[in-house]
Amino acid sequence: MLERRRARHQALHILYQREITEESIGRILDEASYSVEEGQLTGFALEVLTGVEAHQVRLDRIIEGISENWVVSRMPLVDRSILRLAAYEMLYRDDVPDSVAINEAVEMAKVYGGEDSSKFVNGILGRLAEVASAGGLVEAPDE
């Protein structure tokens, strides 16, 4: 479990870097321009990073649809990156229970986000879990 927690933190740092630099995940990884503060990237971190990038259009559309009165582009960068990471795990990783993805995201929001980030992230991801379990995520496939 600690290995995956570390991988999530690694992925979040790179997703945040991507937001700031507007470079692709592939370029950031190829140039090794990311911090190795959390150690060498794990396989899980790489899978999550490439998955978030591959499915970002769908993830953003879902997050925006669930978050009332919020446009993804107007969300704080850290919150947006955390939401994408957790939503990816919830929707595309069968080996990660929703409760784990939500809990890990809330904990990252407490560490890296603003004062209300953990509540914001918890609310959106909790709603995502409800809608997904009720079969309410019927929309166009990834673009």
How would you portray this structure in words?
With about 140 residues, this protein is mainly alpha-helical. The chain is built from 7 helices and no strands.
In short:
The protein has seven helices and no strands.
Secondary-structure topology with pairs:
Layout: H1 2-21, H2 25-31, H3 43-54, H4 56-66, H5 77-92, H6 98-112, H7 117-133
The DSSP helix count reads: 7
How many distinct domains?
1
Helical residue percent band? 55-70%
Largest sheet: none
Runs with pLDDT <50, length 5+?
none
The total beta strand count reads: 0
In the CATH hierarchy, what is the architecture at level 2?
A: Orthogonal Bundle
**What gross morphology would you assign?**
globular
Order of helices and strands: HHHHHHH
Percent range for β-strand residues: under 5%
The CA-CA distance between the termini, in Å, is: 32 Å
Question: What's the CATH C level?
Answer: Mainly Alpha
Q: Give the overall average pLDDT.
A: 90
